[in-house]
Structures are given as C-alpha cells and as structure tokens.
Amino acid sequence: MAALVLGAVYWLTLGALDARVDDQMDHEIESLVEELRTVGPDGLVAEVRRRSERSGNRFYLVTEEIHGSVAGNWPKGAETGRDGELSFGEEVNGFHIVRRLRVESRSFDDGRRLLVGRDVSEQHVFEGNLRLALLGAFAFALLFAIGAGLAISDSLLRRVNAMNATIGEILAGHAKQRVAVRGTGDEFEVLAGRFNALLDENDRLLAQIRSVTDDIAHDLRTPLARMRTRIESALAACRDPAAGDALHALFAETSAILDTFNALLRISQVESGALRDGMLEVAFDEIVRGAAELYAPVAEEAGLAFEVDVADGLRVRGDRHLLAQAVANLLDNAVKYGRGRVRVAASAKEGDVELVVEDAGPGIPQTERARVLERFVRLEPSRGTPGTGLGLAFVAAVARLHGASLSLEDAAPGLRVVLRMSGPESRQLATA
Amino acid sequence: MKVLVIEDDPTAASYLVKALSEAGHVADEVADGMQGLQRARLDTYDALVVDRMLPSLDGLTVIETLRKSGVHTPVLIVSALGEVDERVRGLRAGGDDYLVKPYAFSELLARLEVLVSRVRGPAQATCLRVGDLELDRLTRSVTRGGAPVELKPREFALLEYLMRHAGQVVTRTMLLEAVWDYHFDPQTNVIDVHISRLRSKLDRGPGKPLIETVRGAGYRLRGPAPA
User: pTM, whole model, 2 decimals?
Assistant: First the structure.
C-alpha cells in the first residue's frame, strides 16, 4: 500500500515536472517562430541572441543551410541532429561533468533550423533525490510496519502465553491461579476477566460438589453406623455359620463405606485449615521412619525391595498425626502399585525438608497427575485394587495445609512422589 | 461387668445397652450429664461410657468432677470429635480411652474389657508370663518354652501389648494406637502382616499357636488374663 502511494507520488511528480518543461519549451519555440513570422529572420536571430545572454540553463541555436550556426549559446559537445534527451560532456574547473539536455527543434522551408534546449540535469538530480527520498520513506515505512507488527504480535503473544501458562498451572493442580488483569481495559483484559470469572465459577461448582458429598457422607454416617451396630448384634446372636459368614461380609462392607466417608470428611476438615493452629515443630525423620517401619513387612510380603534412606534431625513445623498419615498413604500406594522396589528417602534440601517415595510400578501418565490428587479419582486399570481413591487427595490436602509442594514425577519406570516443605526456621521467619 | 452408658442419643444408647447385655454384661443408661454424674457416684460400675456432648453437663466436666470426688471408675469417652487434640483433652480430663463415633460395637467392647482389666491387673510388672511365653521388659528379651525368640523393637511392643491383655480381644485400631501411636486406619491391613510375622517367630516350636484371629474384631493372645 505504502509502495503504491509512494510510486504514484513519484510518477505524478516526475510527470508534472516533465510536462512543465515540455510546455515551457513548446512555448519558447512558439514565441520564436512567431518572431520569425512577424519580424523576419533578423528578428529571430536578435531574439535568440538576447535570450541566450540572460539564460543559465536554457540553450538556443539557429542554423542556416549555408552559414551553419548563426546565433545561440548551444553547448559545445552537444549534438544538434535530433530531438529528445541527450547527454553531453563539459569541462568545469578540470572536472568532466556529464549533463542532460532536452532538445526540441523546428525546421523551416528556407533550410533554417531552430533548436531550443533545456538543461535537465538538475531535474534528473531532483528525480534521483526524489527517488531516494521516496525509497527511503518506503523503507522506513516498511521497517516501521515490520517493527510495529512484531511489537504488537509480541505483546499479543506474551499475553496469550500468560493465559496459556495460567491454564497450565491450573491443569497442574493450582486451581487458585488466575490470569493477571492490569486494568488497561482492552479486549484481552475483557477476555482475561471473563476467563477468570469462568474459573471462579468452576471453583464454586467444585466447592459445591464437595460440600454436597460432605453432606451426604455426614448424613449417611449415622444410619450406616446404626446398620453396622445391628449387623454386629445379629452376629452376636447368630448360630448359623452360613448366615454368620454373610453377616461378617456385610459388617466388612459397611465398615468400608464408613471408612470412606470418614476419610472424605477428614480431607475436608484438613482443607478447611482449622487444624493449622495445632502445628508444632515435629521430628519429620521419625515420622518417616515410623511409617517405613510399619510398611516394611508389607513390602517384603509383596516381594518388593524396600529401601529406606532417611537423614537424621529433619524437623518441620506441622501436625505430627496428619503428616504420619500422609506418609503412610504414600507408602500404602507405593506398596500396593509398586513392582520390584520401593524407595523412601527424606533429606534436607536448602533449608527445606524433602520426602521422596518412589516405586517401579506402572506410574501415572503425565496427563493424569493433577487429576489423581482429586477425591475418588483412581486410574482405570487399578480400580480392581482395594482402596478408596482418597489417599492422594488426603496427601494433597495435608501438603496444602503445611504449605508444602507436592509433585508427582516419572521415576521411569514408576511413580516418584516428592513432598517438599520448609524447615521450621524458615517457616518461623515467614510467619513472623 | 457392669457398665453405665451416659449418652443423650436414645437410639445409640439403647443399641449399646442391648449389645452389651447380649455380650453378657450389665448396662444402665442415662441421657444427661447431671444424672450420669449422680448415678456414677452412687452406684458401683466397672466402667463408664461417656458421650462428650451431653445436655445439662458436658461429658468432660462429668469426668473431671468424678475424678475430683475420688471416683476412679475407668471411663471410655465416645465422641464425634475425632481430632487428636480432642482426644488429648478427653484423656486429660480423666478419661481412660477415647473412641471416635461412629464406632463398631466390637471396638467399644474390646476397649471396655481392656480398661476394666487394667484396673484389676498389676500396674507395671517387669516380667510378663503367658503359658510358656515369657517377656522381660528390663532385658527386652522373650523366651518361649525357655528358647529365646528374637524380636524387633516394634514386634516386642506388639507382643507386650498382647500379653498384657492376654485372653482379651484387641482390635487392629487399638494396636495401631498403642504400638505405633497412629490414630488412623491405614488402607492396607498392615497390622495383619505384623501379626503374621510375630506368629511365625513365636510358633516355631511344637507348642500351640499363641495368637488367634477373632473374626470381625481383632486378635487375642491365648491364655488367661494376667491376674
């Protein structure tokens, strides 16, 4: 577009200049012809001489058949034979300069010729300058357009990337993340605002689902407990072994449902943050060792090599019982799903305390890792294994309560769970 | 044994009383704290089951008042408040054990029987003996029929607890609480694995298997309660 506009300017300007020069030359010829017609050849010669004297870039020549050139200031090296534009050389102060001359001529019946010339070198220089200027302008416009385009697309890209990163974090389990809104009010901000509103709505629905499941768990707990008591009392009175077996199975099933409900309510209780007050500095190494000791025989029975590598003196600020249950849940999973070996390690890392539980089982695909931290989410192939689907959700809740980071990684093969929490000192600094 | 149930939920109370009598015990029920306090003072009970939240006088105050007036009947607190902090408060008030609702009756019964025998039995014997099994708490050694049995520290604690309550049912939850100080039930039956290891170490000789499984409840170490 810019190129078209600039091109048009170029051609129109040059055209106008050319037309003007041509007009002037036509006019001069006409006036000289008029002189010849009214005054005669002497008048023409006199007029040509007069004009030749005062002009800088206008050239004239009158030739006769017999005498050759009779008047005019025609430049030395310039042709006289043809009309149009021609070049001629000139020596100025020892420099050879090439000039451009536009020539228009008129021949008369008596053999006279009249030549009018115009030095258009300057016009050419102007033309060149104009071309240069326009090309420069074009190049500048082009560069500016490219630069502006890049800047705009970069800024757009950055904002799109920011939104993408937020979505990524939310998918990775940080549900509270939102897109930053800077208040410029443009379309992107509107989009970001809408997007955030959508996320808030999503959170609200999730919370609603949780509270509904909590209510169900809470309300069904009492009748279920009564049911279990009735089963127990029937069991106490039962003398028939077959009926006894059925009652025992019923008792176990009811207990399992109650356990699930209790686990669910416990997660909600942990998530409510109500337990944060009871946090003390506790010996994390002992918690991990205790849980490892509890699970070591289970791992061995399952034919797993059980490696325990716990550093001494690891202390964190937290709830001993919740942490113990979280570690136990991780070990429970590792022993349940692991193959070959299970490794438990706890160590100090730059002021933090890090727990690693690693198995060589089937692992959890990348896309499922955030999901398995939700309540009741179990990977399809493992549905057959006993469990409530609440173990990792509990661990995630405990991690959040303790401000710890929980990440599920690929142990290639298997799953590596890393729980990292700050040591008691940094924590105190943070809360002070 | 004779048990007083102080519980304001009539359905829960009547189930409990019925179940206790079916198990061969005598049980009375009262529905509020004030009445409960009076009954516990006047009558002689082997154990009290006290709900934490009661009308007129809450469960913890009932227990504190009883203890101040010199009544040392074992108390099992039952409560919907399951947090460890709540448990600690209950035990500080003078309760002897704490059971979170909803509980299985077998769990409550096992705990009551252990509580009652704790009062009857010797407090801190250094040497425990059940049949041909001997456990010395000072040397931390165990012998069966005179032959030494090598145990790991947790296995030792597990056996000690079983021997203290020989002849009584102890539940998996009780073992987790007493031996591991865990107040939650792991998903996998870890206790079963530990018991089976302990069994394999104890039952090497020709003697009878010592630890029996009580279906739907827990385990029992064969033999009479240590008198």
Answer: 0.67
